Amino acid sequence: MTTVSRTPDEINSLLEEQLDFLKLSCASFDNGFAGEIKRLAVSVRVLVHDTNSSTSLLTLANRKSIEFVDSADSYNDENVLSHSSLVQIHMTPQGAKPKAHLDDALENRSIPFDAWWNGIVLVDSKKNEFSRKDITLFLANKEGGAHVDHEIDEKYHDLRNKNSLGWVTVLGDGRQIAGEDHVPATMRQIAHELIKSLHPIYTCKQSVAPNTGFVMRGMSLVAGVHAPDSQYPNLRKDRPKIGGKKVGRNDPCPCGSGKKYKKCCI
User: Fold this and answer.
1) What is the predicted pLDDT for the residue at 33?
2) Most buried among 116, 124, 232, 254, by the most CB within 10 A?
3) E strand or H helix at 136, and its extent?
4) Looking at per-residue confidence, does 263 or 166 come out higher?
5) Distance set, CA 84 to CA 12, 151, 172, 183, 200 (Å)
6) Is 239 within 8 Å of 247 (Cβ atoms)?
7) Is this structure's pTM higher than 0.85?
8) Chain centroid, CA 133 distance in Å
9) Is the per-residue pLDDT at 195 higher than 60?
10) Is 91 helix (H, G, I), strand (E, B) or coil?
């Protein structure tokens, strides 16, 4: 088979086409079609995910070196609760509804791609950690975005189906309702961040339904008063392990410097 190289104009045209797909899927999700998160995941994967056998559109277009919008609430290893950093909670008479921050995030940072893609955005009650990459590839490769696997990772399955975040809503009559799945809103925010990274003038506000009592944001509870002191506070996926346990921020640094890990190689 004879092949030819695509021109830069062709690559840029395909890039803009995928961004259009992403925006249309975002609009469909916002209009009530929850299953659209799977197509969001596929478009995000095509745009950013490189493997040994495939090259992302951003790499082909030489755009991987840009700064990416990070709207995640900062994660602290000393957090005593589960953590959902791309989601805000809308309290309604029917319970707590997780919604993407969209442009209503508490703060936005600009960070390199690896810090964005691998930064932790969800931590369940058992301290299982999930990055943007994890959420996107589970949806695209395992749950029907582009492929369905007969088996699924147990930790991810529990996150989606067994409320492993452990959040409940207590109604006025004392009844408790298990928290809703945070993955759809998380995937929606990942797509929003990516669009804003490539089209900075793009805006999309989170609407508030008339029956919403109040909105909660930045819901992490930390044992202590100090904030994370890392430049990229959500990047914890590659934290080293000793004896099978991840090194904590206040543990001695494994490099042998004698300093705390948070003050040394973090």
Assistant:
1) 94
2) 116
3) helix 132-141
4) 166
5) 34, 25, 25, 9, 24
6) yes
7) no
8) 8
9) yes
10) strand
- Local confidence band at 133 (pLDDT 50, 70, 90 cut-offs): very high
Match 């999930």 to its residue by tokens. 130
Cβ atoms of 74 and 191 within 8 Å: the answer is no
- Residue in 65, 66, 86 with CA at minimum distance from that of residue 75: 86
Model confidence at 106: pLDDT above 60? yes
> Which residue type occupies 124?
D
- Residue 52 is encoded by which pair of tokens? 């040994």
Q: How far apart, in whole angstroms, are the C-alpha atoms of residue 252 and residue 58? A: 39
Q: How far is CA 200 from CA 48, 80, 197, 215, in A?
A: 17, 35, 6, 26
Say if residue 251 is exposed, middle or buried (CB neighbours under 10 Å; 0-12, 13-18, 19+).
Answer: middle
How far apart CA 160 and CA 262 sit, in angstroms, is: 32
Amino acid at 103: D
The rounded Cα 144 to chain-centroid distance in angstroms is 19
- Rg from Cα positions in the chain: 19
Name the percent of the chain in helix, strand, coil, to the closest 5. 35, 15, 50
> What is the torsional sign of CA 74, 75, 79, 82?
positive
In which element (H, E) is residue 45 found? helix 37-48
Contacts of 179 (CB under 8 A, 6+ apart): 96, 98, 163, 165, 166, 167, 168, 169
Looking up tokens 């589960």 gives: 82
Structure tokens at 125: 């009650």
Q: Give me the residue label for tokens 């492929």.
A: 147
User: Exposed e or buried b for every residue in 38-62, given b needs 16+ CB within 10 A?
Assistant: bbbbbbbbbbbbeeeeeebbbbbbe
Spatial CA neighbour of 96 closest among 166, 12, 2: 166
